[in-house]
Amino acid sequence: MQWRYRETVLAACTLAFFATMVARLSISPVVPQITADFEVSNTVIGVALTGLWMAYFLSQFPSGVLADRYGERPVILVAVGGTAVASLVIALSPVFAVFVLATLALGAVAGLHYSVGTTLLTRTYDDVGTAIGVHTAGGPAAGLAAPVIAAWIGSRWGWQPAVALGVVAAVPVFLLFARYVEPEPPRRPDQPMRERFELGGLVELLGRPPIAFTVALSVLAAFVWQATASFLPTFLVEHRGHSATTAGAVFSAYFAVQGVTSAGVGAASDRYGRDETTAACTAIAAVGFVLLVAVPGWLAVVVATLLLGTGLGWAAALLPRFFDQFSEEEEGAGFGLVRTVYGLLGAVGSVATGLFADLFGWAVAVLVLVGLLTTVSVVLVANGVLRLGY
After folding, report:
1. Is 11 in contact with 135 (CB distance < 8 Å)?
2. Which class for 240: exposed (0-12), middle (13-18), buried (19 or more C-beta within 10 A)?
3. Are 260 and 251 in contact, with CB atoms under 8 Å apart?
4. How far apart, in whole angstroms, are the C-alpha atoms of residue 307 and residue 299?
5. Are the CB atoms for 193 and 185 separated by under 8 Å?
6. How many C-beta atoms surround the C-beta of residue 56 within 10 A?
7. Angle in degrees, CA 154, 313, 273, rounded to 5
8. Which residue has the higher pLDDT, 51 or 219?
9. CA distance readout (Å), 330 to 33, 117, 309, 339
10. What average pLDDT score do residues 131-160 get?
11. Looking at the predicted structure, is the pLDDT value of residue 104 above 60?
12. At what angle do helices 165-180 and 5-25 cross, to 10 degrees?
C-alpha cells in the first residue's frame, strides 16, 4: 500500500500523544525518590500530581479555541515543545515550589494536544473512528513503556533523569511534526476569542440532547477508566494477593492490550455503529471486572486483562459520536469543551474508588465500577431499541 500524506498526519499525531503521555507517566514511578529528595509527604506530592491532571483537562477547551483561531499545527507544536521544556524544568527543579509549578505547566501544555490532534484527524480522514482509535493508542503505548523505563532509570541514576524521559520523547516528535505536517487553514481566524468563551454559547452546545447524552455517558466511562488507571495494581496486591512486581506486569499488559485493540474498536464503530460498539466495549469490561472480583486463579487474571484492555478502549467508539453531532465550525472548540467537562468529572473516579475501597473493601469498590459500565451499556441499547434519538 502506498504511504499517503494522511498516514503521515496520523502517525505524527499519535506520536505527539505518546510523547505528552510519556512525560506525565514518568513522574509516578519515582515519587518515593522525589518525596525523599524534597522532604515532603505523599499527600503533598499527590496534590501536585492531581493538579497536573486537572490542568491537563482544563486546557482542552482553550486548545480548541486556539486551533480555530490559529490552526491545529501551531497548537500541537506548542503542546509537544512545551512538554519538553516543562519536563526539563521539573528534572532541574532546585526546590519543591518550582517542581509543583513546572508540574502544573506540564499538565497545561500537554493538554493542548489531544482535542486539537483529534480535530486535525477529522479534517484528514473520512473513517473518523479508525483514525481516533489509532491516535488514542498512543496513550496506552506510553502507559506500557514509560513507567517501566522511568522506574529503571530512577533506580540507577535518580529521579531527575527518569523525569527527563519526557524531554527525550518530545524533542524528536516536535522536529518530526514541524518537518512533515503541513499547516491547515484555521476555521475561525477572524472571530474574537472572547466570543468563544461566552457562557450562553457554551451552555447551548452542552445542552443539546445528543451532546448532553454523550457527555453523560463519557463521564461514567471516564470515571471507570480513571479508577482503573489509578488502582488496578493496588487491587491486585490487596484483594488478590499478588506481588507488586506481578501487579505491575499485569498493569503493563492492560495498557498493551488497549493500545493494540483501540484501532479495531474505532474501526468497528465506523462499520457497525458508535452505540453498538460502545455498548459492547463497556459490557466486555464489566465482565472483566467480575472475573477479577469473583474468580480465583491465573486464568481469570489473564482473561480479565484482555477484556479490560479491550473494553476500556471505549473512547475510540464513543468520542466519534461527538463529531457526528458537531458542525465543522464547532469541532475544534466543541470537542475541547466536552473533553474538559467529562474529563474533570470523570477524574473523580480516582478519589471516589479509593474512598469506596477504604469504607467497604475492594470487592464493593470494583462492583460499583461494574454497575457504571452496565449502566452505559443498558442506556445505549435502550436508546437504539426504543429509538429515543439521543
Report:
1. no
2. middle
3. no
4. 12
5. no
6. 26
7. 160
8. 219
9. 45, 15, 31, 13
10. 84
11. yes
12. 160
Q: List CB contacts of 388: < 8 A, sequence separation 6 or more.
A: 382
The whole-angstrom separation of Cα 371 and Cα 366 is 9
DSSP code, position 326: S
| Short-list 136, 113, 106, CA closest to 63 | 113
Q: Which three cell numbers stand for residue 378?
A: 443498558
Q: Can you read off the three cell numbers belonging to residue 286?
A: 464489566
Give me the DSSP letters along 8-75. HHHHHHHHHHHHHHHHHHTTGGGHHHHHHHHT--HHHHHHHHHHHHHHHHHTHHHHHHHHHHH-HHHH
Q: Give the torsion sign (CA, 85, 90, 91, 94).
A: positive
Q: Are 138 and 170 in contact (CB under 8 A)?
A: no
Q: Give the rounded percent of residues in the chain with a pLDDT score beyond 70.
A: 96
| pTM to 2 decimal places | 0.76
Tens of pLDDT, residue by residue over 169-186, are 999 999 999 999 998 888
| Residue (of 195, 220, 168) closest to 342 by Cα position | 220
> CA 338 to CA 334: how far, in whole Å?
6
The mean pLDDT of the chain is 87
Task: Collapse the DSSP code of 184 into the 3-class scheme (helix H, G, I; strand E, B; otherwise coil) and give the result.
Answer: coil
What is the reported pLDDT for 309?
93
Listed in sequence order, the residues at least 6 apart from 216 whose beta carbon sits closer than 8 Å to its beta carbon are none
Take residue 353 and report the three cell numbers written for it.
474508588
Where does the pLDDT of residue 155 fall: very low under 50, low under 70, confident under 90, or very high at 90 and above?
Answer: confident
Cell numbers describing residue 335: 470537542
Where on the phi/psi map is residue 387: left (φ > 0), alpha (ψ -120 to 50), or beta? Answer: left
Rounded to whole angstroms, the maximal C-alpha distance in the chain is 61
3-state helix vs strand vs coil in the chain, percent to 5: 85, 0, 15
Reference 140, options 361, 363, 329, 312; nearest CA is: 312
For the chain, the C-alpha Rg in angstroms (whole number) is 20
What is the reported pLDDT for 43?
Answer: 66
Residue 257's H or E segment, with its range, is helix 244-272
